[in-house]
Amino acid sequence: MIYLILSSCLLFILSCSPVHKQMQSATANVSVVQKFKPAFTVALYKTTVDVVGNHLSGLLLIKKMPDSSIRMVFSNEMGLSFFDFEFGANGSFKVYSIIKKMNRKSVIKTLRHDFELVLMNTLDDNKAIVKTKDEQLYFIFPQKKGYNYYITNAGATELLHMQRASNKKPIVDAVMKNFVNGVPDTIGISHKTFTFNIGLKKIEQ
Questions:
Q1: Which residue of 1, 13, 55, 195 has the smallest Cβ count within 10 Å?
Q2: pLDDT tens-digit series, residues 125-182
């Protein structure tokens, strides 16, 4: 009986612990993951966004501004803007505009965190740790809430995928593929707990 109680307590503690706490420590240099940070100057992507029953498609313009901030403007092919965001180099965030059906704090917050995961603009190497599991390296960066995971192969030469995680489990999966001159050709973001998916395919200009 005591064994069962202790086992139940242990399972409860593990279920409440961050996923990476159960992984092995690794000796890789945390800063190596920075080489996967997208080097955006100006990039245009054909984009689809599916969020809680709403489907939007159009073009996403990503542009690095003179102050090193990143501007993101998502509009349809007729030029109607769905949203216009600014991501500051210091981690700040500004909404210039957003359409009414998306103008909810929860949606804006989700979009912000999703794109910050991809932009890699809120990473503090001094607070990061590296873990290993199944011959993959997990570069783990604490955020205000939860963690951003950047998962590579054992040699840290390939970024396999990215995750946003709560204290209990991953809640978002993301990929960046086919980098050319530091810019990914394909970006995908998928939520695990509700329907919120973003797909980007670069348009060659």
A1: 1
A2: 999 999 999 999 999 999 988 999 999 999 999 999 999 998 888 999 999 999 999 9
Dist. CA 181–CA 67, nearest whole Å: 21
Spell out a b/e string for 6-20, using b for 16 or more CB atoms within 10 Å of the CB, else e: eeeeeeeeeeeebbb
How much is the pTM? 0.87
**94 neighbors 83 (Cβ within 8 angstroms):** no
Residue 190, Cβ neighbours under 10 Å: how many? 15
Q: Please answer whether residues 165 and 145 qualify as being in contact, where contact means their C-beta atoms are separated by less than 8 angstroms.
A: no
Domains of the chain with bracketed CATH: 23-202 (2.50.20)
